[in-house]
Amino acid sequence: EGRLGRDFLKRIKRDGYIDVYSRKGNFQYRVSEESLMDRLSTDMRAACRLIDENCRVLTVHGSKDQIVPVTDALEFEKNITNHRLRIIEGADHEFTLHQAELATVILDFIRECRDRGMTSRL
């Protein structure tokens, strides 16, 4: 079914939007036809090139993510100058069983950036 659920295009056409909920049933965000088309038409390579080379970027991706393919994270790695990619083995899209490892990766990245100073590259 994916992130937007079954028959999401039909529902957007019918209602003008769909609401996306977490697995626990909590509202996360609303997708309109306009926002979906905008997102689908975004040239991610061009968007990546707009990121300042001094801006540090961390991408953390789960190897078992069935919503966003790992290849998307690999594309970020190729197209963002000051980028660090960490793939967490066995993690799904929400890092369900890997919260501690996710937190460690993020905190280590923040500490490393802090210790290197605001303008240095990774």
UniProtKB/TrEMBL annotation:
User: Keywords in UniProt for this one?
Assistant: Hydrolase
Keyword check for Zinc, yes or no.
Answer: no
**What molecular function terms (GO) are annotated for this protein?**
feruloyl esterase activity
Q: What class of enzyme is it?
A: hydrolase
Q: Which branch of life, at top level?
A: Eukaryota
Q: Which residues cross the membrane?
A: none
Enzyme Commission number: 3.1.1.73
- SUPFAM superfamilies attached here? alpha/beta-Hydrolases (SSF53474)
- Report if keyword Hydrolase is assigned: yes
Supply the PANTHER family for this chain: ALPHA_BETA-HYDROLASES SUPERFAMILY PROTEIN (PTHR42886:SF38), RE40534P-RELATED (PTHR42886)
What is the protein name given in its UniProt record? Feruloyl esterase
Q: Which organism is it from?
A: Opuntia streptacantha (Prickly pear cactus)
* Lineage, opening ranks: Eukaryota, Viridiplantae, Streptophyta, Embryophyta, Tracheophyta
